[in-house]
Design goal:
By secondary structure, the protein is α+β, with helices and mostly antiparallel strands. The protein folds into 2 domains: 114 residues, Immunoglobulin-like (Sandwich); 185 residues, no CATH class. It is 52% helix and 18% strand. The chain has a 6-stranded mixed beta sheet with strand order 4-5-2-1-7-8, with no helix packed on it. A hairpin with a 3-residue loop joins strand 4 and strand 5.
Length: 334
């Protein structure tokens, strides 16, 4: 009983960290700038509420300074704050740069899409390391490789995705399957989320955001149920694999929706999409490696209670978090 209480306390701590950290995703910020005449045009500045229920404090400015006029502010679905307005600069937009500030742990970057009348279209990802971008014709645009790290962030800092991957690993251990079966299950999950990620980014399909979020939470809850229920005498492996593939499709939709505001550069769509997906796979592999290393070290202590305690604690965390997210997301959907 004491072990279960400690495990439950650890789970509550993780949930608390999730609410103040990454319950699902980081707040996304995007700036779109279009020059309609030399030195003048329109801008749209969009910020998405992060997992801490706060608007990212990210802001931007032109250098040299441009005057912003007729700025309007509106909310979209209680999750996105959108500011629209006009800018007036003393010279052509191509002679300016955009400087971002206010980066935080939950708001680590700003996506910039700028269309100067003179020069090439600019697509950049501003971060604390690269907080400014020149809009001139000699612009060194953010390389597509940046999307590799963005993909890693999305899987590693998306707690619902992390718990799903953890649940798959624990279910594999519970069933005492071999390494080939583990690779097969994660391959199916990868194929599923890669497919929907590509289809959504290319605009070939559309899905309801809130419904997808609720189904993702239900997929994690299903894993928790599989971890605690008694296995049948002859478990049906095919149905299990089909469910993993289906849940891969769901999680791929979640990845794509979280990237919707960021966008992908049209002139390098395939490469950035592949790099983003590769980043997700690297993050997923890192999670599995940490789990495998941890349980290997626990098993080498020759104290089976430690291993069982870790499994109980993780199962409680997965089930508790999934139940909370499911109820919360279904409530917001209806």
């Amino acid at each position: 009983m004491n072990r279960l209480l400690v495990a439950w306390a650890l789970c509550i701590g993780l949930l608390g960290a999730g609410e103040n950290g990454y319950a699902h995703e980081m707040g996304t910020s995007a700036l779109i700038v279009h020059e309609s005449a030399s030195g003048t045009g329109q801008f749209v500045f969009k910020r998405t509420v992060g997992s801490d229920d706060k608007i990212p404090p990210i802001d931007f400015q032109f250098a040299p300074v441009c005057e912003l006029r007729d700025v309007s502010t509106e909310w979209e679905g209680n999750t996105e704050l959108i500011q629209r307005g006009n800018f007036f600069c003393s010279s052509a937009l191509a002679e300016h740069e955009i400087i971002a500030n206010g980066f935080t742990r939950l708001a680590p970057d700003l996506i910039v899409l700028a269309s100067p009348k003179q020069g090439q279209r600019v697509h950049a990802v501003l971060t604390p390391k690269q907080a400014s971008i020149s809009l001139g014709t000699d612009t060194q645009r953010t390389p597509p490789l940046e999307y590799l790290s963005i993909g890693i962030e999305h899987i590693v800092f998306g707690l619902d995705h992390v718990l799903f991957v953890t649940g798959l690993y624990l279910l594999w251990k519970k069933r005492k399957q071999n390494t080939k079966q583990l690779i097969g299950q994660f391959t199916l999950f990868t194929v599923g989320h890669s497919l929907t990620l590509a289809l959504l980014v290319l605009g070939w399909i559309a899905v309801p955001t809130r419904a997808i979020e609720a189904w993702i939470a239900l997929s994690v809850l299903w894993l928790a149920w599989e971890l605690v229920r008694k296995e049948p005498a002859q478990p049906t492996n095919w149905s299990h694999l089909l469910l993993i593939a289906a849940f891969g499709l769901l999680h791929g939709s979640g990845f794509a929706l979280s990237m919707e505001e960021r966008g992908f550069p049209e002139d390098a769509l395939l490469s950035t999409l592949l790099l983003f997906n590769l980043g997700i796979e690297i993050g997923q592999l890192w999670i599995v490696t940490v789990l495998a290393t941890t349980f290997t070290l626990l098993e080498k202590t020759h104290l089976p209670n430690f291993t069982r305690f870790a499994q109980y604690a993780l199962t409680l965390c997965i089930g508790g978090a999934a139940l909370y997210w499911t109820l919360e997301r279904i409530h917001s959907y209806v």
